[in-house]
Design brief:
InterPro entries: Catalase, Catalase_clade1/3, Catalase_core, Catalase_immune_responsive, Catalase_sf. The chain has 498 residues and is an alpha+beta fold. The chain is 28% helix and 16% strand. α4 runs parallel beside α11 and α13 packs antiparallel against α14. The site of protoporphyrin IX containing FE (HEM) has 28 residues, from β4, β5, β6 and α9. Protoporphyrin IX containing FE binds next to β4, β5, β6 and α9.
């Protein structure tokens, strides 16, 4: 292959990429630089603009291209075409991230993993913006900035701060189930190939007749849900901070393609009405014994990005990006997220971020009432009318969804009044955390001690002023847990006993 001819960014060939033009008498040490030196000026000016705003959360990540294949028919639940027809395949783009730390931070820190997936379907893009734990720390969206600030850096010291972390969580105890998962070894996954991903939220699967089911999504790793111990994760963070990034890249490069099985849990609206837990409360799971998992399809990562910045940093995922057949539920966190992600993408990438190659739908896009703006690269719909209902050019529309009584009952809001609302914590919020403590960790030799040790190591770095409230919070799960955390913090360095 012949070598590419170097040019400036406007395409003009240039003699040497290392020269600078200067005015001199030939002396090696004397000379003045010239403003006409376009190569030097463009090189320096572009360098200062290489960074775009980092994601305010989930800044550090790894990504891959892939494929989703339908393995089980669920056309009785949804009209979404990418889920209809066994064997149907769609191209995908994924981005798996830590949440709190900034870009370039060690991969193995104790944190939730974000798990974003874009499925390029014949009906437009379907984004799943999930986490590797099935519950969330809050259920009131206004708390989201506070939650994340408490996990990040202190405003004065700029150091991550255990006191802020436990102060937030001991005063907002609805997150106890998520905390239990975070401080088990699931908070330190072995690699991104070994994490599961969960919608957490309840979504809706809809049919054109207006009927629907409530669903939760689960992507289970076919590599197994494997973890590191706290000590292994800490060692890797120092010795091999890019460990997860390199692991995924190398696996894909060597043809060892990781895969996940997609399952759903589905409930009718009537079942949701009488279910023990509010299906719009993201701090609760639906135990599999209540609502069994149904297999749907297989996701495989099969291609590394050609360029990280172009494919992964510029990728924009949003829970609001949904194809016909899927819809948001009334979960307040999910509702808030419908706004937050496109808003963040416009700030980070500009008004036309959907036109970037990594985000561009593969099916035809005709959105002529959204045009112009910085970096318009889609032809801008030429001379087509830029206003609605023009008689000059016919535009076809999707058939509206019929209204049936089931839909009316859950989606038509005829009574009520505007009121300020904040959820309150009750004993019921500790039930599932207790099920995890007794049923899951209790069934695995030594895992209760692991969780207590992980909590104590972190809480021990916080100021004592937040300890009592935190011990009390863990006692609400089980008195032995609260006592064990108290003893472990008091006796840091001694062996943990539960
Ligand atoms: C009120 C609640 C939430 C708000 C306001 C919120 C907001 C945000 C924002 C602003 C970003 C950065 C987006 C960007 O710059 O492109 C982000 C990223 C992300 N969020 Fe959330 N978030 C919320 C809850 C959640 C929940 C519950 C999950 C998982 C179930 C989640 C998963 C993610 C993931 C995976 C990313 C990274 C997306 C990517 O890779 O580009 N978030 N969130």
């Amino acid at each position: 292959m012949s070598a590419p001819v170097y040019t400036l960014a406007e395409g003009c060939p240039y003699a040497d990429a290392t020269t600078a033009q200067r005015f001199s008498d030939g002396s090696p040490i004397k000379g003045l630089m010239l403003l006409q030196d376009t190569q030097l000026i463009e090189t320096l000016a572009h360098f200062s603009r290489e960074r775009i705003p980092e994601r305010v959360v989930h800044a550090s990540a790894v990504g891959a291209w892939g494929e989703f294949e339908v393995t089980h028919d669920i056309s009785h639940l949804t009209s979404a075409k990418f889920l209809t027809g066994i064997g149907k395949k769609s191209k995908t783009l994924s981005r798996i991230s830590t949440v709190g730390p900034g870009a370039g931070s060690p991969n193995t820190v104790r944190d939730v993993r974000g798990w974003a997936l874009k499925i390029f379907t014949e009906e437009g893009n379907q984004d799943f913006v999930f986490n590797d734990i099935p519950v969330f720390f809050i259920r009131d969206p206004i708390k989201f900035p506070s939650l994340n600030r408490s996990h990040k850096r202190h405003p004065a010291t700029n150091v991550t701060d255990a006191t802020m972390f436990w102060d937030f969580h001991s005063q907002n105890q609805e997150g106890i189930h998520a905390l239990m998962l975070l401080f088990s070894d699931r908070g330190t996954p072995k690699s991104v190939r070994h994490v599961n991903a969960y919608s957490g939220h309840t979504y809706k699967m809809t049919k054109p007749d207006g009927s629907f089911h409530y669903v939760k999504f689960h992507f289970k790793s076919n590599q197994g849900n494997d973890t590191l111990t706290d000590a292994e994760a800490t060692r890797l963070a120092g010795e091999d901070p890019d460990n997860h990034t390199a692991d995924l890249y190398d696996a894909i490069e060597s043809g060892n393609f990781p895969s996940w099985t997609l399952y759903i849990q589905a409930m009718t609206p009537q079942q949701a009405e009488t279910y023990r837990w509010n299906v719009f409360d993201m701090t609760k799971v639906w135990p599999h014994s209540d609502v069994p998992l149904q297999p749907v399809g297989k996701l495989t990562f099969n291609k590394n990005p050609d360029n990280y910045f172009a494919d992964i940093e510029q990728a924009a995922f949003s829970p609001s990006t949904m194809v016909p057949g899927l819809a948001p539920s009334a979960d307040p966190i999910l509702q808030a997220r419908q706004f937050a992600y496109p808003d963040a993408a416009r700030y980070r990438l500009g008004a036309n971020y959907q036109q970037l190659p990594c985000n561009r739908a593969l099916c035809p896009v005709y959105s002529p009432y959204q045009r112009d703006g910085a970096s318009t690269i889609n032809g801008n719909y030429g001379a087509d009318p830029n206003y609605v209902r023009s008689a000059l050019k016919a535009v076809a529309f999707r058939q509206p969804v019929a209204d049936d009584s089931g839909k009316k009952h859950h989606d038509v809001w005829t009574m009520g009044c505007v009121a300020d609302y904040a959820s309150q914590v009750t004993d019921e919020d500790f039930v599932q955390a207790r099920m995890f403590w007794e049923g899951v960790l209790g069934a695995q030799e030594g895992q209760k001690e692991v969780l207590v040790g992980n909590v104590a190591a972190h809480l021990g770095r916080a100021k004592p002023v937040v300890w009592e409230a935190t011990f009390d919070m863990f006692s609400r799960i089980a008195p032995d847990l609260g006592k064990a955390v108290r003893n472990a913090v008091a006796g840091q360095g001694q062996k943990t006993q539960v």
